[in-house]
């Protein structure tokens, strides 16, 4: 339980008022002890207060870092089972963020694959979001990924250069126009015999639309034939998995 008015304590003395003071972080006196109390006692009181404040300091420091997350592997397994990574050489994960999607696909990616994670890494959206964090999370999951800063609507990737392109739980965060452009860019960089893997939440840009039909239409309009569609219901959370093949 956080102190409603957290303070960081040290101690000082003031003989002009015949007492010891324990001060807060700004140097303002907060607790007074008579001079009859030994310096050791006051020191212990200050250290006790400081110790109780460590959790608060750590909490405040954590506000500048992305929150921890627990990986739910089932939804990624449903995606990777259809992407046959064992037959692929180059993988692009669009919107990798802190590395959650890279960690999700990691168990299915053989070490012979070259994997690239791409994200704008806007820390106004996720505090502490940066390429190094995504790279570290992927590495901890056993995936040696190259992580680059970039825009999904203007992929810094050559035409027909990727065997697999994934977009996991990120298209719904974009505007409808940006989502369509990102899928078109995925089609541009995907090899003719490659595959697109989309993992999405049941969220659309159009009210009252069926999420599965909506995202299938977006993928199809971008130039892919729909090879696989699967609706998942995991721990009261719904997801849509779509596999597309360039036409």
Describe the structure.
The chain has 247 residues and is of the alpha/beta class. The protein folds into two domains: 10-62; 73-246, Rossmann fold (3-Layer(aba) Sandwich). Helices cover 30% and strands 29% of the residues. The protein is built from six helices and ten strands. The chain has helices at residues 39-62, 73-80, 100-105, 131-140, 176-189, 211-221, and strands at residues 10-14, 19-23, 29-34, 90-94, 114-119, 145-149, 162-168, 190-200, 224-234, 237-246. It has a seven-stranded mixed beta sheet with strand order 6-5-4-7-8-10-9, with helices on both faces. A three-stranded antiparallel beta sheet has the order 1-2-3, covered by helices on one side. It is globular and about 40 Å long. Residues 1-18, 20-28 and 56-64 have low confidence and may be disordered.
List the helices and strands and how they pair.
Layout: E1 10-14, E2 19-23, E3 29-34, H1 39-62, H2 73-80, E4 90-94, H3 100-105, E5 114-119, H4 131-140, E6 145-149, E7 162-168, H5 176-189, E8 190-200, H6 211-221, E9 224-234, E10 237-246
Parallel strand pairs: 4-5, 4-7, 5-6, 7-8
Antiparallel strand pairs: 1-2, 2-3, 8-10, 9-10
